[in-house]
Specification:
single chain; alpha/beta; 5-stranded parallel sheet; two-stranded antiparallel sheet; 6 helices
């Protein structure tokens, strides 16, 4: 199986994720896998493929901006500048898709095709028809945050919830001993 000309023939787990995302009527997809297995990369590439096929108009990427280690304090700038350091996985996936894709319509900058929003600002927002929402690092989300996201989807939208229970960075969740993502 492939998306955007990127083959997953040697990776059955990635091929299965693509199949689940592409499946009509499958509005909610959960994917738990170790770091570095391509969850974000494959989900984003598949969402972009479906957008190119005009099956979906909009892609929303969201995650909890959890810092690892010492707190850096307040970051300067507006929302975009404050949230941008947490978007490295998204930017890395976009760069990788651009370099690996053989699809003619893939430009060098795909970031304009993806609406980025911190989970904290998803309250009150709808994941409308013809929208794919990718929730990354869901192991750092509380049950309340996950419920909020899941109640935002409409009939013809899709939400892909990604995480790794071996990488809980949210101190409140780590203290509990298990993620609500489980």
């Amino acid at each position: 199986m492939s998306v955007l000309g990127i083959s997953t023939k040697n990776n059955p787990e990635q091929a299965e994720l693509i199949r689940l995302i592409m499946q009509t009527g499958k509005n909610v997809i959960f994917c738990e896998a170790p770091a570095g297995t391509g969850k974000t990369f494959i989900s984003l590439a598949t969402a972009l493929q479906m957008q190119l096929e005009k099956r979906y108009k909009k892609i929303i990427y969201t995650r909890n901006p959890i810092q690892l280690g010492e707190n850096m304090g307040f970051l300067p700038g507006g929302l975009e500048e404050k949230f941008d350091p947490f978007m490295a996985p998204l930017h890395d996936s976009i760069d990788s898709i651009c370099s690996k894709s053989s699809h003619k319509l893939i430009a060098n900058d795909l970031s304009y095709k993806v609406d980025v929003c911190p989970i904290a600002f998803m309250r009150g927002r709808n994941i409308g028809d013809d929208t794919i929402c990718i929730v990354d690092e869901a192991q750092n989300c509380t049950l309340e945050e996950l419920k909020t996201l899941l109640t935002r989807i409409s009939t013809y939208s899709k939400i892909i919830i990604l995480g790794s229970n071996k990488q809980i960075d949210n101190p409140r969740i780590r203290r509990k001993g298990k993620s609500d993502f489980q």
